[in-house]
Design a protein that fits this description.
The protein has two domains: about 1-200 and about 365-380, Glycogen Phosphorylase B (Rossmann fold); about 215-360, Rossmann fold (3-Layer(aba) Sandwich). The chain has helices at about 10-20, 40-45, 65-75, 80-100, 120-125, 140-150, 155-170, 180-185, 230-240, 255-260, 275-280, 300-305, 330-345, 345-360, 365-375, and strands spanning about 1-5, 25-30, 60, 110-115, 130-135, 170-175, 195, 215-220, 245-250, 265-270, 285-290, 310, 325-330. By secondary structure, it is α/β, with parallel strands linked by helices. The strands form two sheets. It has a seven-stranded parallel beta sheet with strand order 3-2-1-4-5-6-7, with helices on both faces. A six-stranded parallel beta sheet has the order 10-9-8-11-12-13, with helices on both faces. The longest helix is centred in the N-terminal third of the chain and has 23 residues, at about 80-100. Keywords: Transferase. GO terms for molecular function: glycosyltransferase activity.
């Protein structure tokens, strides 16, 4: 069996494409932007749109003209769901043509597609007996979209209609956490279709022992918005002003005035390259991840790979093992108490750090392969 992986964006640093490429199972990876050029435009804007472990002849991506067209169109749109509908439709048209050129009538193919970029492909090839559709639901579904934007619009209605049709047509729906599975089941998605397979995390740091700052640096990494729980992080920073230092890494979606006022309590760095993010993690002592709704929360693993204990909300994958490598809390007052506890008990903080480094092993490629293989056997699909 051969695998075709196709998605918009850098989805988990292209770990699925890399996984199948290493095992000589990847027929191709189809994506929107892939950094082939050394120009400043590509280096800055698409710095993460590349994976050196996937052969270039396995990559199918937009041309420069197509990238330019999509970017211009997006600039003319303000509604998030309108943008998602446009980019999903454009991508599926592109991917479908490439997939039809790659498959033949005899070889069994697993098509691994993702949320919002799969519907036309599902409709076109659903009757092909040699194709198995594995649909990777990126986030927890409608629960997520209602938090993201509670206002109803024709764009949102169309988007939700599309993703629900994707669920209906897929042979299997893969989610990355039990939290996501529960969210999908709330909307009567067939539970027999849903499989839970955690993400792969390939460790890039070589840290064996974490050294902590005398004054703890508490970090927030990700989009600085309501969804990721940033207002909770700000509340924590206000309560612990003068006791701990606070840093927020990521793109802000708040007004300039909001960020200016928050800057009294938090240092804002903006978006960082992978190289600079690595340095930031080395200087961070505790990560706070107070997300309202997340399909997994890769930043938890990123932080733990540097020996950083994590305080996360329950609204994501359970990477945090309570009172072992961090805590699970979802309100500011409880998070403040946990930080003070770790600040006052540095030996426990060190033990949490050691446990965090060990936790990363549970998200290896070998573990991913074992779980994925077992789950797909339920559908009589064997990957080899």
């Amino acid at each position: 069996m051969k695998i075709i992986v196709y998605h918009i964006g850098a989805r988990d640093y292209y770990s699925i494409g890399e996984f199948f490429s290493k095992r000589n199972l990847l027929l191709c990876l189809i994506t929107d932007y892939w950094k082939r050029s050394k120009s400043t435009f590509f280096t800055n804007k698409f710095s993460r749109r590349f994976n050196k472990n996937i052969q270039s002849n396995q990559i199918i991506s937009y041309s420069i003209l197509q990238i330019f067209f999509v970017e211009v169109c997006i600039k003319l749109m303000s509604n998030k769901f309108r943008i998602w509908n446009f980019t999903g439709n454009y991508f599926t048209n592109f991917a479908l043509k490439k997939i039809l050129n790659k498959i033949d009538s005899t070889e069994k193919i697993l098509l691994w597609g993702y949320t919002g970029g799969n519907l036309k492909i599902l409709k076109r090839l659903k009757k092909n007996q040699n194709v198995f559709f594995l649909h990777n639901q990126i986030d927890p579904g409608i629960v997520y979209y209602d938090i993201e934007n509670g206002e109803n619009s024709t764009y949102k209605e169309q988007f939700l209609k599309n993703i629900q049709e994707e669920w209906k047509l897929a042979d299997a729906i893969l989610v990355n956490s039990e939290f996501s599975k529960k969210c999908l089941e709330k909307y009567q998605v067939n539970a027999d279709k849903i499989i839970v397979v955690p993400l792969i995390y390939n460790v890039t740091s070589n840290i064996k022992k974490k050294h902590f700052n005398p004054v703890l640096t508490i970090g927030f990494v990700g989009n600085i918005n309501e969804m990721k729980g940033f207002p909770i992080f700000l509340d924590v920073a206000k309560q612990l002003k003068g006791i701990c230092n606070f840093t927020a890494i990521g793109t802000s979606h708040f007004s300039e005035n909001y960020i200016d006022n928050a800057s009294e309590f938090i240092k804002f760095t903006g978006h960082m390259s992978m190289k600079n993010l690595s340095v930031a993690y080395q200087n961070m002592d505790v990560l706070v991840f107070p997300t309202q709704c997340d399909g997994f929360g890769m930043v938890q693993l990123e932080a733990m790979s540097y020996g950083i204990p994590v305080i996360a909300s329950p609204n994501c994958a359970t990477v945090v093992q309570e009172n072992s490598n961090g805590f699970i809390e979802d309100d500011a007052n409880s998070i403040v108490k946990r930080i003070l506890y770790l600040n006052e008990n540095r030996e426990i903080l060190k033990q949490f750090s050691e446990n965090a480094l060990l936790r990363i092993n549970d998200y290896s490629e070998a573990n991913f392969e074992k779980i994925l293989s077992n789950e797909l056997l339920k559908f009589n699909i064997e990957i080899k």
